[in-house]
Design a protein that fits this description.
Elements lengths: L1 E7 L8 E7 L6 H11 L3 E7 L5 E6 L4 E2 L3 H13 L9 E5 L4 E6 L5 E6 L4 E2 L6 H5 L6 E3 L5 E4 L3 H6 L4 H5 L6 E6 L8 E6 L9 E2 L6 H12 L3 E6 L5 E8 L2 E6 L1 E8 L3
Parallel strand pairs: 2-3, 4-6, 11-12, 13-15
Antiparallel strand pairs: 1-2, 1-18, 3-4, 4-5, 6-7, 7-8, 8-17, 9-10, 10-11, 12-13, 13-14, 15-16, 16-17
Length: 268
């Protein structure tokens, strides 16, 4: 069984967000998939299987649990299908998911891939009491989308880069993702910065290096503030990565590159 590690939302190895991609030829047991994800220890491991109707079934697992939507592992999966010769380079890929419907990926300009995802505009809501001490940063605007992801606007990009959250405290707030964001610095080649933490899904410091699904909320959030539907975000983790976003009604087109860093066989 083929498995690869792909760095997503980057054009350089060891940057962006690594995801394992396992290409299945038959249905797999959920316990086995969770065990593989725990073994790989990336923020997500994707499991892809061709369906009879020309689509591909796609599921994503963190080391701790299954998730309902994952952008970087979808990008990595499409990259693996194209570069492995499973799908011709110019064709659109349609992924069938359990909780997020059909997700399409198609080749974009200059070697990018474009993903069609549901938009999840955050709505104003009072922050739980845990957020102020948990983020150890001044809170500005807060919002929550339908999956209980929280978007927290900080005063500037420097504040986003310096956040050092108390993950144990944030986990008590029951947020799937905690996203901190701010406008980009003057003269930057991107429009906004962000960092994303998954206190209930990822071990350790719970920071996800580059998070496609977070940009489903960040795209409408910043489109409203900046007055443009097409923007570029930079996720300012230690690895860093760029995500192009284009708001299209109730959908978001996420754009990025990917690089394969490992390819081999899974023996179990």
């Amino acid at each position: 069984m083929r498995i690869s590690v792909v760095d997503a939302f980057t054009d350089r190895p060891f940057k962006g967000n690594p995801a394992a991609v396992c290409l299945l030829d038959a249905p797999a047991d959920e316990t086995w998939m969770q065990d593989v994800a725990a073994e790989m220890r990336h923020s997500e491991t994707a499991f892809v299987r061709p369906a009879d109707d020309g689509t591909f079934e796609l599921r994503w697992f963190t080391p701790l649990n299954e998730v309902t939507l994952c952008g970087h592992a979808t990008l990595a999966s499409a990259h693996a299908l194209y570069h492995g010769g499973v799908v011709p380079a110019g064709d659109e890929i349609r992924f069938r998911t359990l909780h997020s419907g059909i997700l399409t990926v198609r080749p974009g300009a200059e070697g990018t891939l474009e993903m069609d995802f549901p938009a999840r505009p955050p709505v104003a809501a009072p922050a739980p009491a845990e957020f102020t001490p948990g983020l150890r940063a001044p809170l500005g605007w807060t919002g929550r989308n339908t999956l209980a992801d929280w978007v927290v606007e900080l005063p500037d990009a420097a504040a986003v880069r310096s956040v050092a959250p108390d993950i144990a405290v944030l986990a008590d707030a029951e947020a799937r993702l905690v996203i901190v964001t701010a406008p980009a610095e003057a003269g930057a080649d991107h429009d906004f910065v962000s960092r994303t933490f998954a206190p209930r899904s990822l071990p350790g410091d719970a920071e996800d290096p580059v998070t496609g699904s977070a940009h489903c909320a960040l795209a409408p959030f910043w489109a409203e503030r900046l007055g443009r539907d097409a923007l570029t975000g930079y996720q300012a983790s230690a690895r860093g990565g760029r995500v192009g976003v284009r708001l299209a009604g109730d959908r978001v087109v996420l754009t990025g590159r990917a690089v394969t860093v490992l390819s081999g066989d899974l023996l179990v």
